[in-house]
Design a protein that fits this description.
The chain is built from two helices and six strands. The longest helix has 24 residues, at 4-27. It has one domain: Metal Transport, Frataxin, Chain A, CATH 3.30.920. The protein is α+β, with helices and mostly antiparallel strands. 31% of the residues lie in helices and 30% in strands. A hairpin with a 2-residue loop joins strand 1 (36-40) and strand 2. Strands 1-2-3-4-5-6 form a six-stranded antiparallel sheet, with helices on one face.
Amino acid sequence: MATDTAFIASADAVLAAIGAALDAALADDANDNDADWSLNDGILEIECTDGSKLIVNRHVPNREIWVAARTGGFHFRANAGMWRDTRSGDELSAKLAALLREQAKLTVDLTGLPGPAE
């Protein structure tokens, strides 16, 4: 991404899409989960029923989306039109969906997350 402004717009679109997917998952009776989430100034906080949290935020200096979970921290950078973990190469939507299943006991469809603006 050429500018911080482009990164922020792209990251904010991802965070909003994650929020919409969480709303859809929480409205689904099959999930039977009381998780809660909030999005403020580029920080999406997901509070799990066990009191733990998953945090997804934009990190402007590195132009990355960061995820903090009980199992560790993950940094996702624009790579070939996708948000990819800088260590494992995992794609953001797949990794975050797995973390939500594991930590929040919540099945969330994140397949439609927007890719980074190039």
